[in-house]
Write a structure and sequence with these properties.
Layout lengths: L20 H7 L2 H4 L3 H17 L5 H19 L12 H13 L2 H4 L6 H37 L4 E6 L2 E7 H26 L1 E2 L15 H7 L4 E2 L3 H6 L2 H28 L6 E2 L18 H24 L14 H21 L4 E2 L1 H9 L5 H10 L4 H18 L8 H5 L10 H4 L1 H7 L8 H16 L2
Parallel strand pairs: 3-4
Antiparallel strand pairs: 1-2, 5-6
Helix pairs in contact: 3-4, 3-7, 3-9, 4-5, 7-8, 7-13, 7-20, 8-11, 8-20, 11-12, 11-13, 12-13, 15-16
């Protein structure tokens, strides 16, 4: 057979019969790992340059490899590359194409490495780039939230516990709570990136190589912080993928919480916000419907991403050192996690700045449920009453309000004084919604000036990236 025959397996010398057709399809990964082509070629170029530096390849051989790989890259980008299941994966497809282009020199490229350290390197390079892309979308979403928070710093809305009206807050304060979750997610992603950015190239199959390779050089060429320390761990480690999955799962849980609130707030029962039509759909039978599909889908996709994390954990839980074929199953959950996170972030980064607050409905809702009751208790404590006694006085006042269908702010001074003569005319300053939110004038509080200051600090953090 010809040296360029694509049906020849690079590892076929030990075998006496061809791979079963079903097994060939079952074990192939090229259908999904071909997306790594760019990083596989970059890794090969760095490896070839290092082999040239240490004298394993000549300068002419390196130039031939470099030219051939760049031609292959151009063919893939143009959609003219013929991917073959027979060649199993992205690595062997590219290597076979290179050998077909430049002859025997193409076969020298794999000197001093294995597909085990090659795929570990490719995934790290790919994930590093995707993390950087995710940071951009995450930052765009955060800036959209922060800008909206600044605009809505004085927009009163009810704050909830147990989904019951608790105390008045502002819409801007609520949006900054979402941003705090995303800021923690950013920190986790950056921690993950540090552990992704280590080079396993040169670990070979599991035990390194007898060739005089320079792993620090290839790490530098590929922009890695350093080479990994142990060859066994280098080829079998997928902690970085699991860690990314954990980041992604928590991010999606946060976005699912945002989604739940958006879905509630767009309902007729709340009517707190309006989503742009371009982010919603209608009903095939009910012409009045405007469905918040984007938040609902993000909420649903959180389960998908969390499921991928569990898949990765279960994939690794019983593997002995070093590399096992099980690890082929790491790519599809990782790839889909990346795609899902990027799509969800884009959708929210586009949608959040266009949300319109229905301020009248928010304020009216904040007046229901006796949201200033805690402010009345605090008022009594400042007048010298023990908190437990103040709690009881306010509880009785609320019971009276329920019976009379009156908010605390709607009661007369005489009505309030029947529960305590400590209450005076100045009580009405704390029973207004704006008085309530403005009174919490401390860092992290709801006072509009504090919300604006918090937004400026949050924007500065994002700007530092």
């Amino acid at each position: 057979m010809s040296e360029q025959d694509p049906t020849i397996k690079p590892w076929g010398g030990r075998f006496s019969e061809p791979t079963d057709a079903f097994v060939e399809r079952f074990t192939a990964s090229v259908d999904f790992d071909q997306r790594l082509y760019h990083h596989d070629i970059n890794g090969s170029l760095a490896h070839a340059k290092m082999l040239t530096k240490v004298g394993v390849l000549s300068e002419d051989e390196y130039q031939s490899i470099q030219t051939g790989l760049e031609e292959i890259r151009a063919e893939i980008v143009a959609g003219k590359f013929d991917w073959s299941i027979t060649l199993e994966d992205v690595h062997m497809n590219i290597e076979a194409a290179l050998t077909a282009k430049i002859g025997i020199t193409g076969k020298k490229l794999h000197t001093g490495r294995s597909r085990n350290d090659q795929i570990a390197t490719d995934i790290r390079l790919y994930l590093r780039d995707e993390i950087d892309s995710i940071v951009k979308e995450l930052s765009r979403l955060q800036l959209g939230l922060i800008d909206a928070a600044q605009r809505e710093a004085s927009t009163i809305m009810p704050g909830f516990t147990h989904l019951q009206t608790a105390q008045p807050v502002t819409f801007g304060h609520h949006l900054l709570a979402w941003n705090e979750m995303l800021q923690r997610d950013f920190g986790r992603l950056m921690d993950c990136r540090k552990r992704v950015n280590q080079s396993p190239l040169g670990a070979a199959a599991l035990a390194g190589t007898t060739y005089p390779i320079d792993r620090h050089y290839t790490a530098e060429l590929l922009g890695f912080e350093a080479p990994t320390e142990n060859s066994l761990d280098s080829v079998s480690d997928r902690d970085f993928a699991i860690e990314f999955g954990a980041f992604a799962s928590l991010l999606m849980i946060h976005m699912s919480r945002f989604s739940e609130e958006l879905v509630l707030w767009t309902s007729a029962q709340f009517n707190f916000i309006e989503l742009p039509d371009r982010f919603c759909t209608g009903s095939s039978i009910m012409p009045q419907k405007k469905n918040p599909d984007v938040p609902e889908l993000v909420r649903g996709k959180s389960g998908r991403v969390t499921g991928h994390l569990i898949s990765l954990l279960m994939l690794m839980k019983s593997q002995p050192l070093a590399y096992n074929k099980d690890n082929q199953e790491d790519k599809e959950p990782l790839f889909d996690t990346i795609d899902t996170v990027k799509d969800c972030l884009k959708a929210y980064a586009d949608m959040i700045p266009a949300i319109k607050a229905r301020k009248d409905y928010m304020a009216e809702a904040a007046l229901r449920g006796f949201s200033t009751a805690t402010d009345l208790a605090d008022y009594l404590v400042r007048k010298g009453m023990p908190f437990r006694d103040a709690h009881e006085v306010v509880g009785k006042s609320v019971a009276y309000g329920i019976a009379q269908n009156k908010d605390l702010s709607e009661m007369s001074l005489q009505e309030l004084q029947q529960f305590s003569d400590t209450i005076e005319q100045d009580v009405f300053e704390v029973l207004t919604l704006i008085g309530s939110v403005s009174a919490r004038d401390h860092i992290g509080g709801t006072a509009p000036n504090q919300v604006k200051a918090a937004a400026e600090r949050a924007k500065a953090l994002v700007a530092q990236r």
